[in-house]
Amino acid sequence: MSDLPEELASRPTRKPGQEPSAVLTLDAYVRLRDELEELRTTGRFHIAERLKAAREMGDIRENADYDAAKNEQGLMESRIRRLEAMLRDPDIVETPEAAEAVAPGMLVTVLPLDEEDPEEETYLLADSTEEKAARARTITPASPLGRAVLGAREGDEVVYRAPGGDFRYRVVAFEPHRA
Predict the structure, then answer these.
(1) What residue ranges in 15-95 does DSSP mark as E strands?
(2) Is the pTM of this model over 0.85?
(3) Which site among 14, 59, 61, 149 is 20 to 30 Å from 91 CA-CA?
(4) Same domain, yes or no, for 79 and 141?
């Protein structure tokens, strides 16, 4: 892959046995890197302003605005740490060009077989829940539905078990996801 950003192209080779911090497409990496930068700059500035305004209202022990801003700050800092960990040393994967069976990086369209008036549903099967596709929900190969469709072919019936029971689907189509 020759279009890697400089920070990825110039990173040192992983040591034997060292695992990647995440498995992402280049599109997801760039989107998450931009989100991280936005949170570190504008996000932190916005929270600081909210906290300052809330403190100026008086006693912070009974200040709902202050509590809400502190809660939002905690959630944002948690997201920043998660993104930093994911982006530290990810494997960048390419979407498959074509395949004979469903694999990660594909949009999979399925039809529920146990509904009275079923409508087709489209999912992006991806190694990371951070991958996104327009008009599709993301599933991973580790999820029940992801395990069921992995390796399936067009027309195959798949079943997965969830707390609500067994769910049956027919694989209607699948294609590589292009960002």
Answers:
(1) 23-25, 91-93
(2) no
(3) 149
(4) no
